[in-house]
Amino acid sequence: MSSRPARSTWFLIIILIAAIGAAAWIYFGPGYKTSPLPVLEHSEKPNAKESANQNENSDANDNENSAEQRAALEELITNADVRRGHSLIHMCIECHTFDEDGPVRFGPNLFGIVGARHASKEGFAYSEALKSMQDKIWTQDNLNAFLTGTQTYAPGSRMTYPGVPKAEDRADIIAYLKTLKP
Ligand code: HEC
Predict the structure, then answer these.
(1) CA distance 63 to 54
(2) Model pTM?
C-alpha cells in the first residue's frame, strides 16, 4: 500500500525535473548562441557616440551648430553666390528693408545686420525673445540657425516666418547680408 504512492511520487519528481530541464534548455539554450554580450556592445557604442555628440553640440557656442556644421556653412558661404542671395531676399522684403537707413516694415531694417547686436535697430519694437538676446552678435552661424528655424533659435520671436529650408539658399542670403555694411 505504501509502495504505490511512493512510485508515483518518484515518477512525478522525474517528470518535474525533466520539465524544468527542458524549460531551462529552451530558455537558456538559444541564449547561448546570441549571448547578450555582443548585443549590448552593439547598442552601447552608438549610444555613447550620440551622447558625446550631444555634449559637443551643447558645448558649441550658443545654441547653434556643431563644429562640423560651422565648417560646412563656412564652405557654403565661401562659395556663395551673392547675386543669387540678393534675388532670394524677395522672401524677406515684405517685412524687411535692406538699404542703409531703410524704414521699418513689419520687421526691422537689416542693413549691417552681420556683426550687429541682436534686437539693436532703433525704432523697432522687438519681441522679448529677441530683446533677451541683446548681448549677442549676429554671426553667420547664428543667422543660419535663426533662418533655419526662427522659433527654435528664439522661441517666441515675432518673426514667425517658417525659415529658409535649403542650406545653399541660407548661405547665399547670408553672403549677401555680409555685403550690407557702410
Ligand atoms: C512675415 C514677416 C517677415 C519675413 C517674411 C521675414 N522676417 Fe525677419 N523679422 C521679422 C520680424 C517681425 C522680426 C523681429 C522679430 C522679433 O522681434 O522677435 C524679424 C527679425 C529678423 C532678424 C533679426 C533682426 C535684429 O535686429 O536682431 C533677422 C536677421 C531677420 N529677421 C532676417 C530675415 C531674413 C533674411 C528674411 C528672409 C529670408 C526674413 N527675415 C523674413 C519679420 C519677417
Answers:
(1) 12
(2) 0.72
CA of 66 to the centre of ligand 1 (A): 24
* Full residue range of the structural domain in which residue 82 is found: 64-179
Output the residue whose Cα is nearest ligand 1's atom 37. 92
C-alpha to C-alpha distance for 149 and 167, rounded to whole angstroms: 12
Q: Are residues 105 and 139 in the same domain?
A: yes
What's the grid cell of residue 172? Answer: 547665399
Same structural domain, 84 and 171: yes
pLDDT in tens, 77-102: 999 999 999 999 999 999 999 999 99
Q: Which residues line ligand 1 (CB under 6 A)?
A: 89, 91-92, 94-96, 106-108, 110, 113, 118-121, 126-127, 129-130, 143, 147, 157-159, 161, 164, 173
Grid cell, residue 140, equals 553667420
Residues 27 and 115 in one domain: no
